[in-house]
Design goal:
single chain, about 375 residues, alpha/beta, Quinone Oxidoreductase, Chain A, domain 1, Rossmann fold, 7-stranded mixed sheet
């Protein structure tokens, strides 16, 4: 079938993207679902820094690629062997297809699925196949989803069914922003009540982490960002203190507020400077968690002796250390109970033709979670 999709042909084009147009909204061919696959009518997709990092070249991927990895839609058709979904079901896409049989999956760490990682790295579905084409040229899938399109064919393992009481705009952000931010706070580490917490970087992922942190009854919850508007929103969402990350005394402010540093610092900006700040504000015996994805060439350097002498821990968090099939329904229920007001994170609603300008806003830090309505 013919679909409209946002296709990236060249990474690293200059900003503003509204002029250089790295994403071409174009007609391409989509194959019907093969065995174990599902055809989804996409309804909403979120603009995320993981998309931006492909567009700007920080996360190299094979090209051409149909971009977008955070989305929700409605099942149209299922391939052979798919027994638990049917046409009309509402689904959220998760950007790691979990095979359930590799060593990480079998030991409870599906976010590290090895076949899923290989498929995502090479731009295929979990089967190793590509279902997108332009003429006789294959178009690569973005993290098994390619959400910025009318329709998408995905592996069954990339989808989680949700009930139709949730709007597609809301459902979309559960596939990345909520999984990554809330999961980092509740899966990667589980801070005890009364801990001192800090979140550095207040995009969709960082603010989702902040919402989750609020449910843990921390003694101190510090939000840190370069944007005064985002700091103001963080206060409204439950931060006890906010600190301008550009302030030369930011580290001293936080260490003074917490009498030596926070127990847990969460780096959500995807930059070495943010990671350095997070590490420096973590107290002795504390944990520094990063869910950001900077350019692979950017290196983070620390004195090794501090890890030993201060019993410091540095932890990475990918997909929030989540099992999407388990955690997406759990987080949706927390939202319904008022514990995770993720609707506060949704900013502009835009059309597919406005997507390049949307990524300008994202790159400039002028938005939180823009939703493309499809």
């Amino acid at each position: 079938m013919k679909i409209r999709a946002a296709v990236l042909h060249e990474m690293g084009l200059p900003r503003p993207y509204a002029q250089s147009l790295p994403l071409q909204i174009t007609e391409i061919d989509l194959d019907p679902p093969g065995p174990g696959e599902v055809l989804v009518r996409m309804r909403a997709a979120g603009l995320c820094h993981s998309d931006l990092s492909v567009i700007n070249g920080d996360r190299p991927r094979p090209l051409p690629m149909a971009i977008g990895h955070e989305g929700a839609g409605e099942v149209v058709e299922v391939g052979a062997g798919v027994k638990d979904l049917r046409a009309g079901n509402h689904v959220v896409a998760a950007f790691v297809p979990c095979c359930r049989t590799c060593e990480p999956c079998a030991t409870g760490r599906p976010a590290l699925c090895e076949p899923g990682f290989r498929a995502n790295s090479t731009g295929t579905l979990l089967s190793g196949l590509r279902r997108l084409h332009r003429g006789d040229q294959d178009v690569h899938h973005h993290l098994g989803v390619s959400a910025f399109a009318d329709y998408a064919t995905m592996a069954r393992e990339s989808l989680v069914e949700v009930d139709d009481g949730l709007s597609f705009d809301e459902a979309a952000v559960f596939g990345c922003a909520v999984l990554t931010g809330v999961g980092a706070m509740t899966n990667t580490v589980q801070p005890a009540p009364g801990s001192g917490l800090a979140v550095i970087g207040l995009g969709g992922v960082g603010l989702a982490a902040l919402l989750a942190a609020r449910t843990l009854r921390p003694q101190v919850l510090i939000a840190c960002d370069l944007s005064a508007e985002k700091l103001e929103l963080a206060r409204a969402l439950g931060a006890t203190h906010t600190v301008d990350a550009a302030d030369a005394n930011a580290v001293e402010q936080i260490r003074d507020l917490t009498r030596g540093g926070v127990h847990y610092a969460f780096e959500m900006a995807g930059s070495v400077k943010a990671m350095e700040l997070a590490y420096r504000i973590t107290r002795r015996g504390g944990v520094t968690v990063t869910a950001g994805l900077p350019n692979p060439q950017h290196l983070f350097s620390i004195p090794q002796v501090g890890i030993v002498a201060e019993e410091r821990t540095i932890k990475g968090s990918y997909l929030g250390s989540c099992d999407p099939a388990r955690d997406i329904p759990r987080y949706i229920e927390m939202y319904r109970q008022g514990k995770l007001p993720i609707d506060r994170l949704l900013s502009e609603r835009i059309g597919l033709d406005d997507i390049n300008a949307g990524f300008d806003r994202l790159a400039e830090g002028r938005t939180i979670r823009q939703i493309v309505r499809l």
